[in-house]
Amino acid sequence: NYMAFLRLITACIENNVKTIVFTSSMAVYGDNHKVPFDEEYLPHPCDPYGVAKASIERLLQIYGKEFGLNCVILRLHNVYGIRQNIWDPYRNVIGIFINRLLYGKPPIIYGDGTQKRAFSHISDIAPYIVKSAFIETCYGVVINLGGSGPRTINEVAKIVLEKFDSELDPLYADPRLCEVKDAYCTVRKSKKLLVFREKADFCEEIRKTIEWAKAAKIRQFKYFDPNKYEITKKMPITWTEEQI
Q: CA 102, CA 8: separation in Å to the nearest integer?
């Protein structure tokens, strides 16, 4: 994430790009704040992904000030919907659940499933990403953007199983390393600056995403070789093909 963005922003500056909208993540908040996470909280990421996103945010703020670049930082969370990447075994719980069910495997839940997340349908996100680039009051500002209603992972698994018409039961595994228990955000600023409104119905959009995935003949998970790219100690059981 970081090195790719560094190359991108360098090219933008050299070619006089005026505005950048960066899709960050609520992972920057980490595990040291009460929910719902507010933009006024200082970043406290507790995993490499969150650290990378927080670092990019800071780099963008510095370069924006130094080179006169209009920058908008949108902290998204758990975006899902038709045409999402659901062959990635490492992120996006809804996609992971659907992929496993497509191949006759039950969802795997880390911990007891009571952890809470807010989910954001792409139709509620994409228009505001575009809109933010043309609103001057968004320049230089960090904005949470996404769903505001938290759900437990147990609840999400139940809905996905029902919409898939599956009789399988979830499997439970040990909690993931560095996972935040509850993570969802305020939407106060996005409502004020972007006039943000949630419209998507969660259960209905899950059904549509499942129907799309069934028709699209989604491939099975694509894994990296952990011996080349990852620390293998304490690696979650679903991160390597041999352990599933």
A: 36
